[in-house]
Amino acid sequence: MNNLGTLYFFTGKMGAGKTTMSKQLTNEKNAVLLSEDEWLESLYPNKIKTIEDYQNLSKQIKPLIKKHVQNILCVGTDVVMDFPGNTKNQRRWLLNIANEINAYHKLIYINVDNQKCLEHLKIRQLEEPERNNFDTESTFNYLTSFFEEPKELEGLNIIEINSNDK
């Protein structure tokens, strides 16, 4: 019998509600929540000014995060990762965390249309003004151009939540 925890991770466009849902799921599952934004801000305060800064620093923390998550899963605790899974490569990294130790995973795909995502970003700009330089329509459009819908062929256990369901 597998006594490992389950790894939960997300995909969805910027502003789809991944962070909000990750917090809700953490409470529902009594799981450990790991937020990439929190880790990066704690380790590299005020160092992320561009998407390139984010990519470089994100790459640096991944080996540590991977081992940390696997250790938590191995003691039977569920982990919710608020890390982007918006491209095949990002999802492959997240999936490998679980697969390498034979843990179960669930990818939650929050399928929200662009207009609703942009509305969420406007609200977030009011609630978190420190993010105003990054949470813009142009950043949304740029990042959305890289978004790849998840496919079961990737080996994923997908739970899709449509914008009509929210």
Shape label: globular
CATH class division: Alpha Beta
Low-confidence stretches: none
Beta content comes to 15-25%
**Order of helices and strands, N to C?**
EHEHHEHEHHE
Please count the beta strands (DSSP E, at least 2 residues each): 5
Which architecture would the CATH scheme give at its second level? 3-Layer(aba) Sandwich
- Secondary-structure-based class equals alpha/beta
Measured as a percent range, the helix fraction is 40-55%
Average of the residue pLDDT scores = 92
Sheet with the most strands: spatial strand order: 2-3-1-4-5
Supply the number of helical segments.
6
**Alpha carbon gap, first and last residue:** 35 Å
In short:
Keywords: ATP-binding, Nucleotide-binding. This protein is an alpha/beta fold. 47% of the residues lie in helices and 15% in strands.
Characterise the protein shown here:
With 166 residues, the chain is α/β, with parallel strands linked by helices. The protein has one domain (7-165): P-loop containing nucleotide triphosphate hydrolases (Rossmann fold, 3-Layer(aba) Sandwich). 47% of the residues lie in helices and 15% in strands. The longest helix is centred in the middle third of the chain and has 24 residues, at 51-74. It is globular, with a radius of gyration of 16 Å. The mean pLDDT is 92.
What topology does this entry show?
Blueprint: E1 7-11, H1 18-29, E2 32-35, H2 36-43, H3 51-74, E3 79-82, H4 88-99, E4 105-111, H5 114-127, H6 137-144, E5 158-162
Parallel strand pairs: 1-3, 1-4, 2-3, 4-5
